[in-house]
Amino acid sequence: MHMNDAELPRWVGQSELDVARYDHCVEQAENRLVYATSWFLRLMAGTWDVLVSGDYRYVMPVPHRRKWGIAYVYQPVFAQQLGIFPSPPPALRKEFFRSLAARFRYVQYQTGEPGDMEQAKGFAARELHTRILSLTSPYDIVVKGYDDNVTRNLKKAVQNQVIVAEESDPALFFHLQKFSKKIPVPGKSWKRFRYLMEATLPTGTGRLFTARTPQGEILTAAFFLVWHNQMCYMAACNSPRGRNLRGGFALLDHVIRLHAGSNLDFDFEGSSVEGVDRFFASFGAVKKPYFVFTLNRLPALIRLIKK
């Protein structure tokens, strides 16, 4: 592929970015992701700029920070992956990665497009995975994909009279989150997550569900984003009683039942924790790989400190 100068990726800062054209490019892309929209990045990433090819034909959002006087690219918490939208030809993908490497000495960037080490020259790649459950079939078909463990736990949830309902108040989630020590997320990131909930719940893009006892005690709370054909399981919190009474099983089954027969792909977000991944797989969700590309040209002293 021969590229002229206009096709080569150029750095476009926030103040110069045509946000409408950027969002249009992301939304029309076959590989579109909610994490790459301007509104999501504005809420969750703080400082981010864009590598743009051509007349907004391809875009690559780049969240970045500065520490010890060195600018670096990082993956925002709750943004599972970003990437280049739409997926470019190999030669152009190589130029995007080359542009990143030319501007930053440290890069950690997650994308579902594997490329190859020739295209991401100088970057190390590590494979992770999410889990996707297609909700195109009716519920009675989807439920056949549940394993025996899910079926048993759903029966227990029914016996425990767990009630699942949709909510509109983020405080219900954060009431449980305060007591949940199992989600290693910094306080600042939880604050941004609350902004995300407050911005999206009124529009229906954000969906909040709780599982409760008949007396109204909240056992489990979970927040989802629904955008185009994607439904992303962003975060969940359980109380100890919620785990005992199987609140999480009841909540997920309710959400799946509610959206079965739609055009949605339910993204469980994946987990590198084996038990959590097994839990997601038990609902019939299949693996979908994505990749962490890392470039580290930090000075030796800083590398030592980082260790």
Give short descriptive properties of this protein.
alpha+beta; 307 residues; elongated; 12-stranded mixed sheet; 12 strands; 33% helix
Low-confidence stretches: none
Rounded to the nearest angstrom, the radius of gyration is 21 Å
- Helix/strand class: alpha+beta
Helix content: 25-40%
Q: Count the strands?
A: 12
Biggest sheet: strand arrangement: 1-2-3-4-5-12-6-11-10-9-8-7
- What is the terminal-to-terminal distance? 41 Å
The ordered string of helix (H) and strand (E) elements is EHHEEEHEEHHEHHEEEHHEHEH
Q: Which percent band covers the strand fraction?
A: 25-35%
Overall form:
elongated
Tell me the major beta sheet. Answer: 12 strands, mixed
Mean model confidence by pLDDT: 90
- Helical segment count: 11
